[in-house]
Hints:
Elements: E1 3-9, E2 18-20, E3 22-24, E4 37-40, E5 58-63, E6 68-73, E7 80-83, H1 88-99, E8 104-107, E9 124-126, H2 127-135, E10 153-156, E11 174-178, E12 181-190, H3 208-219, E13 234-240, E14 249-251, E15 256-258
Parallel strand pairs: 9-10
Antiparallel strand pairs: 1-2, 1-10, 3-14, 4-8, 5-6, 6-7, 11-12, 11-15, 12-13
Amino acid sequence: MPYLSAIHLFPFKSLDGITVEQATILPSGALLGDRAFALVDEQGCFVNGKRNALVHCLRAHFDLHERILALRIQGTSDEHFFQVDTEREQLNAWFSTYFGFPVKMQENTAQGFPDDTLAPGPTLLSTETVATVMSWFPGVDQQTFPLRFRANLEIAGAPPFWEDRLYGEDGEGVRFKIGSVLFEGVNPCKRCVVPSRDPISGEAYPLFQKTFMQKRRESLPAWATRSRFNHFYRLSINTCVPPSEAGKTLHVGDQVCLEAS
């Protein structure tokens, strides 16, 4: 039976994530601590990997309890520490110097900063799916390749693309449970330029999107709702979580099961 094998939080949108053993559901359906912070420029636009490849060269670790962000530039040994509540101005200055333009940190404790605001629940992807996709790209780093997709919930014990069962036609969600938590799968997540780049160096893999779309089309399982693929540059599942699930906790090892229709 499929089960939850890993939980990944990304406290700062676009920066490195952390792996935890359990995570709490917020009233919005997001995971507590996930994408709670974001960097924005003077126009209020996100400073992220989609728009600025310099993001890939930042190594970050956030202590959820002490709320201390450790930053290091890839290839250097100097590490800088900031307490995000009391040293926010210093942190903004550090980011502004690094990117070369004014940058501010924002925080949203209610929902965070999801890419899909209509489906703000955690994203989901299976281990075997990642392994299959990785086989399409010879020479990639096997340790870091899964980081390209930045999924919150990793599912093991299932065949490749099992998660394509978790959405239906447009407007028709699929209900499933992980442990005691009820979810609704909404749609296959459309991808941006970020998966085409090495998550550590930022180096782009040649013809990544073209290869991905061709292989994804060829590999689309019979249980996938094909009408949801206006293009095939889609991977992982966006979800919603009903308000009734707020306060519940996901645990690594929880079983995943489809709700009876």
